[in-house]
């Protein structure tokens, strides 16, 4: 999504760190009454309206539903918040760490970071505060430097793909977004972001309950606390039965952290060595899968249609779902797979991957909420040595590579310096870059992987997540070729169904006729 405020301007090296700004933009009128009316409707031959809810019913039914675990009634009340001046680290670590939300977030791929806007934790001591600010400022300086260094590469690749010269400044500015999406790897995870964030009342209850979960608990208390206060102001009854958050000291992650630090100083080098050796040459490695997955999918198709194996073979059953010339839903703009009786058969094949990717890439990756992952609590995986991902485009530019590597070395020195000065690790890590390496375990059924792969195998996807997608598709395709026979980006699927236009991205077309490729290969991608 392209912002209205995407044009480049002069970079301001003055750090701006306003407090989080939380607005309750939209909500249901009388949300608690609405929840109780929904609960009453369960035991009524008609729909109960909010006007019919009494004070006694709010106490009796509301308390009974909450204490009894009948929490779906609190999902009907929905709240849309405007969040500004919150860190990307908090968003990744907490706000987007679960599947039950909807966000439209300011994109670092399309919005140039002209201001140094970043979260500054409550760090004691002037020396430490200055060290933190210096680390953040250096990141922005390097971001600007890399943007300039990479722009000519971006322009050259664009000219080669589209076979025409980039003549005017307006077009160069548009192409600069390709440069900033690479340069953003050096910006800190403390960088501010803004978004519209919509959740149900039940999700807000849950966020409030685990507000002290590590490692961004101090920022969570501010942001979630303000969200809760805004809802209480709109409807004082809505938190009538909600108990206090679990104290930090009682959370399982904190207890584990305390036990480990009493035994030994945190050192994740052994974990990293073991994890990376298991990956081998992969960045996303298939480590487990359901061997009978395709057979189960075929069985599910036959169960849906009331057919025997003699009437429909496994390959015929799978083809009836995945062949875009037979399944019209595959060429629709809307993803209706969970609503199609036939396509629900894709739920049964299952896959598990171990993955190594950057913080910024996983911020995209985790938006695929139905492909669930066990992500690291960052305080457990801190490294003294730089541990980061380098974008492909930087490896192609020796000057940019030198600037990038020197910055990473310097950035870790800043972080280590903060730790040596006694700054809590959860605060010091905010200066780490978007390029920070994360290692995680991710699993999903084929229905949700298919949707994710289709979106992220498009050449408009950023290269890092695109390469991970290609690795995953290749590995699954070797084991179960029948599942990957028609897979690929949207244009490939539409081409196989002979539905035009093959590419639906309009003027965002990548410039390459990917639909005609026999195979998706990293060597064929120019950018």
UniProtKB/TrEMBL annotation:
PROSITE patterns: THYX (PS51331)
GO molecular function: flavin adenine dinucleotide binding; NADPH binding; thymidylate synthase (FAD) activity; thymidylate synthase activity
Gene3D superfamilies linked: 3.30.1360.170
Top-level taxon of origin: Archaea
Entry-linked InterPro entries: Thymidylate_synthase_ThyX, Thymidylate_synthase_ThyX_sf
GO biological-process terms attached to the record: dTMP biosynthetic process
Pfam families: Thy1
The protein's name in its UniProt record: FAD-dependent thymidylate synthase
Source organism (scientific name): Candidatus Naiadarchaeum limnaeum
